[in-house]
Batch of 2 targets.
Target 1
Amino acid sequence: NQPLHELDPEVAAAVDAELERQQSTLEMIASENFAPVAVLEAQGSVLTNKYAEGYPGRRYYGGCEHVDVAEQIAIDRVKELFGAEYANVQPHSGASANQAALFALAQPGDTILGLDLAHGGHLTHGMKINFSGKQFNVVPYHVDTETGLVDMAELERLAKEHRPKVIIAGWSAYPRQLDFAEYRRVADEVGAYLWVDMAHFAGLVAAGLHPNPVPYADVVTSTTHKTLGGPRGGIILARSTDFARKLNSSVFPGFQGGPLEHVIAAKAVSFKVAASEEFKERQRRTVEGAQILAERLTASDAREAGVNVLSGGTDVHLILVDLRQSELDGQQAEDRLHEVGITVNRNAVPNDPRPPMVTSGLRIGTPALATRGFQAEDFAEVADVIAEALKPSYDAEALKARVTALADKHPLYPGL
Ligand code: PLP
């Protein structure tokens, strides 16, 4: 029972270096966050040792009396948080939750409608070489390239033409809120199931800052590690128990074996946090921070440098920077920000003229910095650093010093 640093100094060094990276740079990848220490603790607990195939009270292994308690707490809390009648907290990841949900609602070969990957959709919503694209007949819908908003008229037209089994609402890169009532209307009109993947904006929903898809959708999936701020993992929710048996058996034994009870315990902790006032206030700062970024990156000097923001702003925790008029491509812009200590990811803009590995855009998110304690004035400062870094000439050293000052002002995981 030697500690990590003694038993395996090589792995310990990588973990230490990653902690130092997280502490000393500014994390602005929109899908990332910093889990609270209590979540890390639950996730690093002895629950990792336990086999518990099945569900609380109905396990295929003995000795599940304590993991049953933790899993039931997670289920009850997440149902309460999102107003759902049904919850499954076992999916190992967002992609696993999506796979289980889709196979519960449809059969291979059925038609599904999902937002095109290049327009902000996720791999599991129908990308060609993902299970969803390989096993289902995918009809992609798109955003309007003028407004940057989901083209609901196209969605309705495609739904009427193709009569899909499932319509998928949800995104990985989109700066606005979806109209769930309108999706529901279209789904009802063509007799389709509506599945909402709220992985990105679940934290905003929990805080009441974004419409809740649960009352509208047949099934809702999410990750637990993005805006929701918990451990890496997935969940499935539904407004009724109509699909409970199908969903449960799709997760186990359909796609998974033993659940990760240590992660499920950590999910339970994060759902407790997500119900708190402090969490709501953090989500408010998250959206406010993204709006401050959007404002700064649409100011006249940013526009002169060829920088713009898709849809002109944001209602959520991220912005999409449009670099089609800039001399920088997405890769170069990502590298520049990395050089000054800000981590973001390059991202295709709709109808991107550049290849997917290069792109003409950036996705920049605020959840991790809000968790770190950033206030409006800190977001204004980081927005200004980004705007300066994306200009044709920039002073890397000076910008890096400003980044370091912000990191020092809001220490991350002190004492870890
Ligand atoms: N769904 C959406 C909308 C996502 O953005 C993501 C992750 O980026 C996922 C699902 C998949 O989550 P995971 O990476 O945990 O499989």
Note: Residues 31, 93-95, 98, 122, 124, 170-172, 197, 199-200, 223, 234 surround pyridoxal-5'-phosphate (CB under 6 Å).
Target 2
Amino acid sequence: KQQDIAVIGLAVMGRSLALNMADHGFAVAAYNRSYAVSEQMAKNHPHPHIHIYKELKDCVAALKKPRKVMLMVKAGKAVDMVIEQLVDLLEEGDIILDGGNSFFEDTIRREQALRKNGLHYFGVGVSGGEEGARFGPSIMPGGNKQAYDKIRPILETIAAKASDGKPCCTYIGENGAGHYVKMVHNGIEYADMQLISEAYLQLKYIGGYTNTEIAKIFKEWNAGELESFLIRITADIFLASDDRSSQDLLDVIADSAAQKGTGRWTSIEALKQGVDVSMITASCNARVMSNLLAQRHQAQILYPDRKPLQRKNDAFVETVRQALYAGKILAYAQGFALLAHASSQYDWQLALGEIAAIFRAGCIIQARFLNDIQQAFTKENPASHLLFDPFFAKQLQTHQQALRDMVAMSITQGLAIPAMANAVSYLDMFRSSHSGANLIQAQRDYFGAHTFERCDMSGSFHHEWRRDHE
Ligand code: NBP
């Protein structure tokens, strides 16, 4: 029997995706560079629809035409190495899909190169970790639109299904669009996680709540407008106890966070595009600073912590909740603003509403309020920015005071809340009638004759500043 699709790379993600495809009845040809990994998979996860091949050429030869080969190998040069091997084994019209976290510029380059060989190349963002890949991820495919129809049945079948039954997979755009959207998804994920950890610090060090109490608070939050995968798993995290000590597990986990790079890519890309994603950047920096454990320890002596306050009451918890929700709206608004800008920059015609829709299940940032974002961007004449949408404008009008209060309280208390602080600054820059840029223009003209524009007449002006103070 001929195989429907090949999965190359059988580490955690490839294995899970292959099993997911096989569960849905697709015949999967599976291959891993190190055969021992393949054997391990055959032993631990045998499946009647998965056929394992020792040689890549045999794996490819077993495929129905046009052949579909999905790469789930480490992002970077491994992808180029596998493509190089595949080029000789594939023929015109065949399709390579890269399901890893590849940098979108690499995807643009690879798509262009393979097009010359008559091959279709899809950069496919896959979110949801192992669990998502195994039982239904959110999938963001970018590549040739006509060729999408050939891979659509497989991708849409294995994708997560949102509450309305729709698959969390949709054609995103040409070349690197899918990986771009995945990158921004991860950037938003960074900001969302940072906001949640700031709310945790506030509940603990201003509110004086215990982990068990915070778990209960998060459970309650998850029944309302904050409902999301991240809030749900965080509630569980507060309840886990350490089996090596009698402490809560969270309290023995080292306070220093790692990063693999997709958040940083988002931040660098946004700077290049001239789009403000300050909350994502702040979240990357928070992880960077968290790693300076020795320095932080030393600085503690010079600048000690304030004594935790005991603001334990329901009104305080509600203020934290509203601050978190307002922060979350602003973080997603920044991410979607970057997508909107990139869409025209790269000529991708990104459908922001569709993108919000496929984030509703399967992925790490899945959240109830993505339904509202979807609606905001799919209505007739959608707003140019999420903060102009009437629903979100109303939400922020009612919740922004809580965000300001929590930022002020945290700063007074000496708690690091970079995402929330940047959320307030972003909102204030966004809505400000006086940004201070008039003074900056004057300074630029003073020292560099950069010229300035006037409010009352058009044209470009220069002033001989030095004379004023001589
Ligand atoms: P890894 O990113 O750890 O990659 C391991 C796989 O790459 C193995 O199959 C390995 O084969 C293969 N590989 C390497 Br390394 N170099 C190779 C080469 N030169 N030629 C052929 N194969 C090579 O696996 P993963 O964690 O399953 O992730 C796969 C992709 O999915 C990555 O891009 C990752 O960023 C992305 N992703 C991961 C997650 C997650 O939660 N883990 C979520 C979303 C996306 P070997 O066994 O022979 O070394």
Note: The longest strand covers residues 120-127.
